[in-house]
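User: Sequence in, structure out. Go.
Assistant: Echoing your sequence, followed by the structure tokens.
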Amino acid sequence: MEPLWKLAYLLEPAPLTLMLTAVAVTFGSAFRALNYGKEMERNRDLSEASITLDRSQALMIPVMSSCSLLMMFYLFSSVSQLLTAFTAVAAASSLYFCLSPYIAHIKSQFGLTDPFVSRCCSKPFTRIQGLLLLLCSGTVAAWLVSGHWILNNLLGISLCIAFVSHVRLPNIKVCAMLLGCLFVYDIFWVFFSERFFGANVMVSVATQQASNPVHTVANSLSLPGLQLITKKLELPVKIVFPRNLFGGVTPGGSAADFMMLGLGDMAIPAMLLALVLCFDHRKSRDSVKPLDLASSKGQKYIWYATSGYGVGLVTALAAGILTRSPQPALLYLVPSTLGPIVVVSWMRKELLELWEGQTPDMNDKAHLTEV
């Protein structure tokens, strides 16, 4: 056990930036999920509606995650280039999803004309959308060439926001089931996997770097500028910050040079935040704004969940410093986010409503259409 004064490390730029980024991404993902749902209701476009998990699907997530983790542990070197290619496509799509509302807002504010170019997947495709797609593809290409950690974080954050917007939880009952299973999943793979597999599976997978298919192709074709293309890539399944944040590190540097947090440690709590934010929205019957701090019944649930997430994240990082060993973040994040929501809703006599969930009626839909 390290002395307590070592906790001062949490105030250094790298851990402080990591914590602030994680809280902002988790909070922002919940609001993007709410706005995406309102957008689909407004346009009456149910073809792109989010997937709402049921109990069986929630139980399958830890199982499938465990299978994927083992596959990555044993076969990562064999499938890393294919995985990189798949991730690149998913990252470009997610970045497009995240940026499109801002482009639409700018277009409406300045009255920009945006003629249709063609139809793609039975949807109209405009010139500005084409330029945005090129921008997103160029960003992914820059990441493939440079492997820079800032681009890695940008793409990882986009993936997190897109996931939370498209995969939702119906109520606290399913949420508690999912979080409880992932709580056990995280603890097992971090603390106990070495006993069964001879190595810490979670840490091994998290610190592996993928072979860059762009470098492989450029090398086979003897293209010029090969030395500028990084051989190894950190996949955007986590956010990373150099421990020497202002000094930085060279692309392809050792994993020990970085602090990291898995996307799941942001996306899974963000699903809870999105759930309670939708509940807050339905209760208030107003458009929820980030600066609207109070509801008619006191603080909104979103603020209890966000505060709890921040506390849990600080606790997880502090435990890692004091024990000098990797920590399963969900061990701290699940109680610190789900706990306050359950306690506060029980005190307000709203726990049953949150527990069972409530399908919005036609008045809710009409209200969403007006917002």
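User: And one key feature?
Assistant: The beta strands are 51-52, 116-120, 123-126, 167-168, 210-211, 232-233, 238-242, 258-262, 294-295, 298-299.
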